[in-house]
């Protein structure tokens, strides 16, 4: 039976990324997140149905991660989202992008 935790199989912080299987270590989100996170953030925002300028607003990336987590019913909290997006933004953006890829 599937788990509502998301494709990573982890808990609130989506521990276990990258995903197992064909999308494991996909280079585009990882490279883009590490080298130019603003581009990946804009891409994730647009795919979520928001403007590409959303990442320019203070706190918007935490809200974006919370929205994606709630849309896909991934366990976690706003505190988890804040921790990931503040402490390791490139990793958080890669997780969001990969989650969107897996769901679309």
Task: Describe what you observe in this structure.
There is one protein chain. The protein is an all-alpha fold and 104 residues long. It has one domain. The protein has five helices and no strands. α1 (27-35) packs antiparallel against α5. The chain is globular and about 30 Å long.
Key features?
104 residues; mainly alpha; 55% helix; LOW QUALITY PROTEIN: cornifelin homolog; PLAC_motif_containing
Q: What's the topology here?
A:
Blueprint: H1 27-35, H2 37-47, H3 60-71, H4 78-87, H5 89-103
Helix pairs in contact: 1-2, 1-5, 2-5, 3-4, 4-5
Family: Belongs to the cornifelin family.
Protein name: LOW QUALITY PROTEIN: cornifelin homolog
Pfam families: PLAC8
* Residues in β-strands, percent: under 5%
How many distinct domains? 1
The dominant shape is: globular
How many helical stretches?
A: 5
Largest sheet: none
DSSP strand tally: 0
Helix percent reads 40-55%
SSE pattern: HHHHH
Derived structural class: mainly alpha
In a few lines, what is going on in this structure?
The protein is mainly alpha-helical. The chain contains 5 helices and no strands.
